[in-house]
């Protein structure tokens, strides 16, 4: 795991931004970044543009498998209708024709940086208390956040993605 320093955004090189985008793809697949199904499709289309360039007339099985396994949240993939996901992913990807690698990286980072815990290393943990409470530990450049598991609420009945609800 490479640590992310929020205050050094202006000094990031193109290679560091690229590395961060690929690291966040792993976090997306693991379900550690909260997304809606629509946002997950758009991000997968951006990653497809980044990986393959402009979309072809047909989305091949190999491309679809690679995109969904590498860039689409696994929890959503388990409950998604693959036929509709395939068509919406291809149409979203087709709309990105002509977008370069640097632009795709910039857009992905703009979208993902809106999440307050972006760049944190999020890990499930347990507290040694009488009730063995489950928590998530989020390690950032300024703090260690301990988030109660009960504060992760499901936003959609059919797409069990978890959003952190952090009281202020």
Describe the structure.
Helix content is 45%, strand content 14%. About 6% of the residues have low confidence. By secondary structure, it is α+β, with helices and mostly antiparallel strands. The strands form 2 sheets. It has a 3-stranded antiparallel sheet with strand order 1-2-3, with no helix packed on it. A two-stranded antiparallel sheet has the order 4-5. It folds into 2 domains: 107 residues, Acyl-CoA Binding Protein; 44 residues, no CATH class. The two termini are 28 Å apart. Helix 1 crosses helix 6. It is flat, with a radius of gyration of 17 Å. Strand 2 and strand 3 form a beta hairpin.
The mean pLDDT is: 80
What characterizes the major β-sheet? 3 strands, antiparallel
Tell me the strand order in the biggest sheet. Answer: 1-2-3
Distance between the termini: 28 Å
Helices and strands, in order, run as HHHHHHEEEEE
Protein name: FERM central domain protein
Pfam families: FERM_M
Organism: Oesophagostomum dentatum
Keywords: Repeat
